[in-house]
């Protein structure tokens, strides 16, 4: 195909070009005839003739236009649709060839999933034009979810091509935000299809389970890769039917079902290409298989017996034995016999050929509190076998016993779990310690087999693990390679104090190498800590200023020096959430200092969340509360407006020593944040900064805060008109840099004057605020009852 694309036009076109070349030279007809005569040709020696015949030019591939129509159509059909259409612009002979090729050979398969890239965006117009070029001969249509084509438009395409269309693949987008089908839309597509239609590969989302959905899942024509069912009240019969459908959708053998019609190019590719199953044009990839890849059964009132039935259904679909029975019957699992919930025997590839196994399943069983430890033990059997890729058991009543069962599955060398979410289960310190020990043992077992760790996401929020549980997790990271590929760690609302924060910083943020002496220092199995950690969420933990200082000290020590067994930390952390961790202005300042350490673990943080940390009360708020007030003779204290304006904070020499001491921490915080090399998003909301704090932040804009931070959140900080005016002036000064794209000032005490100062920035989309009267948020002097009545 590459040789054909680079070849020239047809011989007739080349003769015309040769004629134009002769006319441009001013040659007469006799001279052109003389040039064409054999006597005028250059003579070559035998040696030169042999060299010319052996050159690559003599072995040039045949041109595409010289191939038979069916072969040329096969070659062009392997191209994406937009590239296939551009072939008509190569030359005149190719354009004529594209017109002469029958549409049933050239346009019968349109795969827009493989053709979408940065240079070509699939939309409704492109798909409609390609379908129109098929002239009613289209057989296969694949549309990505990112194209934004409505389900009704796809149903119309099915109806317009019902005489020829055989397969429609319309999965949702990669992020799962759009592209799902409802049971009603699936029914409309099946009703619009013709008698030759044999496959509808879609992703289905349903709120509740109806009879139509169960019938669609049981139909061999409908293939579902993602099934999202939420808030369903299932009866015993409905559960049996649903689990049977899941077993069928997980079966890779059922993906090979074809009708008795003629083979298409896709079928021939699958028949003669490498691998099995439906993999699309050109052999395809594993991600294109239409077996069930993602299953969500959230808020479906599942219990332990249902979890056992679901585990057996998944095992039966993967080809394994279920409870020793040759066939799968959900009735047996809904009424289990005494003994373990599952007895699945499928480690590695024992008993099941790897080529016949379906890809690991992404399973979400969140918000099923009745699942309990028995349900967790049933699902753990699938985790140990490698049948589960991601697992979410949030708010499922797992407890310590369920966490222990999951830990035993994590210790299996066959575990390929990429993401684990057991938040809101109150596993406690014992459960967290068991999880950490299981991860460590599994990493060592996989290292002995030459395999690497697979866990990239771990969520343990709202489990009351405390400092003890955090210390166990840190110890597992320090003594094994369990977190070698971990990218996201969530431990919010767990009661982790300063000791847990210090252990986390020393063992997870700072990484090194360890292990036995015979282990290579830089091998993946010898990596300790979390060297590729990108997101860390610790909000809602009472770290305090001491914990923040411990994190900063560990990061400062890791940013310098290094040895072969304890090298310098490689900065990878990009998102750090420390909201509501009681840092105060001193703890936040210490943490910001750790962000400017060259090569430190926090030097690449681009999104920092310090909201709800009492920075205003312990920083700028002291200026109003502790600055000596002058008596005006009547014994009344001065109002807030009578104090020195926030601009005085820019000149500490003009302020009193007490005021400077109380505001120096906030100034140090903003200065360090302005010097952070990678900071782009900063959240300082809910900190009661007031006008004084807004003035300090505005003073940091010329120091670099305005040139580096693109999004600044200052919601609910009791900022009044003076603070808004200071921020408006700071935005005007740094507007040339163009970095500050969003300044959120909503829910503040900004009045008419502040609104007027920020009007231009609001119109430009730089600032966001809403009107909120000052009397709602800023405490003022007591108002007499007569004034209120007036």
Describe the structure.
- With 790 residues, the protein is an alpha/beta fold.
- It has 32 helices and 20 strands.
- The strands form two sheets. The chain has an 18-stranded parallel sheet.
- The chain is globular and about 80 Å long.
- 47% of the residues are buried.
List the helices and strands and how they pair.
Elements: H1 2-6, H2 11-24, H3 29-36, H4 46-53, H5 69-77, H6 81-86, H7 92-100, H8 103-106, E1 109-111, H9 112-115, H10 124-133, E2 140-142, H11 151-160, E3 167-170, H12 183-192, E4 199-207, H13 211-218, E5 222-230, H14 236-250, H15 265-272, E6 294-298, H16 304-318, H17 330-334, E7 361-364, H18 372-385, E8 388-392, H19 399-410, E9 419-421, H20 428-448, E10 457-459, H21 466-479, E11 488-490, H22 498-509, E12 512-513, E13 527-528, E14 535-537, H23 544-558, E15 575-577, H24 584-595, E16 607-609, H25 615-618, H26 621-626, H27 657-675, E17 681-683, H28 690-708, E18 711-713, H29 721-733, E19 742-744, H30 752-757, H31 759-763, E20 767-768, H32 785-789
Parallel strand pairs: 1-2, 2-3, 3-4, 4-5, 5-6, 6-7, 7-8, 8-9, 9-10, 10-11, 11-14, 14-15, 15-16, 16-17, 17-18, 18-19, 19-20
Antiparallel strand pairs: 12-13
């Amino acid at each position: 195909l590459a040789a054909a694309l680079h070849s020239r036009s047809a011989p007739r076109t080349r003769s015309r070009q040769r004629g134009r070349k002769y006319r441009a030279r001013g040659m007469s007809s006799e001279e052109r005839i003389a040039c064409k005569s054999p006597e005028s040709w250059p003579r070559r020696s035998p040696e030169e003739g042999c060299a010319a015949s052996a050159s690559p030019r003599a072995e040039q591939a045949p041109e595409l236009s010289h191939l038979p129509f069916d072969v040329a159509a096969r070659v062009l059909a392997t191209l994406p649709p937009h590239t296939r259409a551009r072939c008509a612009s190569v030359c005149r002979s190719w354009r004529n060839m594209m017109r002469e090729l029958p549409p049933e050979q050239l346009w019968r398969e349109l795969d827009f999933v493989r053709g979408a890239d940065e240079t070509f965006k699939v939309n409704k117009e492109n798909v409609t034009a390609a379908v129109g070029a098929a002239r009613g001969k289209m057989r296969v249509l694949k549309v990505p979810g990112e194209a934004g084509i409505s389900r009704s438009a796809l149903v119309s395409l099915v109806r317009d091509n019902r005489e020829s269309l055989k397969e429609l693949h319309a999965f949702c987008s990669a992020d799962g935000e759009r592209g799902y089908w409802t049971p009603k839309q699936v029914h409309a597509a099946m009703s619009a299809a013709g008698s030759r239609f044999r496959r509808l590969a879609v992703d289905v989302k349903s709120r509740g389970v109806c009879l139509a959905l169960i019938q669609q899942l049981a139909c061999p024509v409908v293939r579902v890769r993602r099934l999202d069912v939420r808030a369903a009240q299932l009866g015993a019969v409905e559960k049996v039917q649903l689990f049977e459908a899941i077993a069928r959708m997980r079966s890779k053998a059922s993906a090979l079902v074809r009708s008795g019609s003629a083979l298409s190019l896709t079928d021939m590719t699958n028949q003669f290409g490498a691998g099995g199953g439906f993999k699309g044009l050109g052999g395809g990839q594993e991600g294109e298989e239409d077996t069930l890849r993602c299953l969500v059964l959230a808020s479906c009132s599942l219990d332990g017996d249902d979890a056992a039935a679901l585990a057996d259904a998944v095992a039966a679909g993967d080809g394994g034995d279920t409870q020793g029975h040759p066939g799968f019957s959900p009735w047996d699992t809904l009424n289990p016999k005494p003994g373990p919930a599952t007895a699945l025997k499928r480690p590695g590839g024992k008993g099941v050929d790897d080529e016949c196994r379906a890809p690991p399943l992404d399973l979400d069983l969140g918000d099923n509190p009745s699942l309990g430890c028995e349900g967790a033990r049933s699902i753990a059997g699938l985790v140990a076998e490698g049948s589960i890729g991601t697992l979410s058991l949030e708010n499922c009543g797992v407890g310590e016993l369920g966490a222990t069962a999951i830990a035993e599955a994590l210790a299996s060398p066959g575990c390929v779990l990429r993401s684990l979410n057991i938040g809101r289960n109150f596993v406690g310190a014992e459960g967290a310690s068991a999880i950490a020990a299981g991860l460590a043992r599994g990493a060592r077992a996989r290292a002995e087999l030459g395999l690497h760790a697979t866990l990239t996401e771990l969520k343990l929020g709202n489990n009351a693990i405390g400092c003890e549980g955090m210390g166990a997790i840190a110890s597992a990271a320090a003594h094994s390679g369990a977190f070698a590929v971990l990218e996201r760690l969530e431990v919010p609302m767990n009661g982790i104090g300063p000791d847990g924060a210090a252990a986390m910083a020393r063992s997870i943020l700072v990484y090194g190498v360890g292990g036995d002496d015979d282990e290579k220092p830089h091998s993946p199995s010898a990596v300790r800590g979390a060297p590729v950690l990108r997101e860390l969420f610790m909000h809602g933990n009472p770290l305090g200023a001491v914990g923040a200082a411990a994190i900063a000290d560990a990061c400062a020590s890791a940013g310098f020096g290094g040895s072969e067994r304890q090298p310098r930390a490689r900065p990878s952390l990009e998102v750090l959430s420390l909201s509501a961790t009681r840092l105060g202005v001193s703890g936040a300042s210490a943490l910001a200092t750790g962000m400017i350490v060259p090569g430190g673990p926090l030097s690449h943080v681009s999104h920092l969340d310090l909201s709800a940390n009492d920075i205003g009360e312990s920083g700028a708020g002291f200026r109003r509360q502790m600055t000596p007030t002058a008596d005006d003779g009547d014994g009344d204290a001065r109002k807030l407006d009578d104090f020195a304006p926030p601009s005085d904070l820019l000149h500490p020499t003009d302020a009193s020593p007490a005021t400077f001491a109380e505001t120096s921490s906030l100034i140090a915080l903003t200065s360090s944040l302005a010097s952070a090399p990678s900071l782009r998003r900063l959240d300082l909301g809910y900190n009661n900064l007031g006008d004084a704090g807004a003035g300090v932040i505005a003073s940091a804009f010329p120091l670099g805060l305005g040139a580096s931070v693109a999004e600044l959140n200052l919601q609910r900080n009791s900022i009044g008109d003076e603070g808004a005016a200071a921020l408006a002036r700071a935005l005007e000064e740094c507007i040339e840099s163009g970095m500050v794209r969003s300044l959120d000032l909503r829910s503040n005490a900004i009045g008419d004057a502040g609104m007027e100062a920020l009007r231009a920035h609001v119109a430009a989309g730089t600032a966001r605020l809403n009107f909120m009267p000052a009397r709602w948020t800023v405490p003022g002097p007591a108002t007499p009852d007569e004034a209120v009545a007036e």
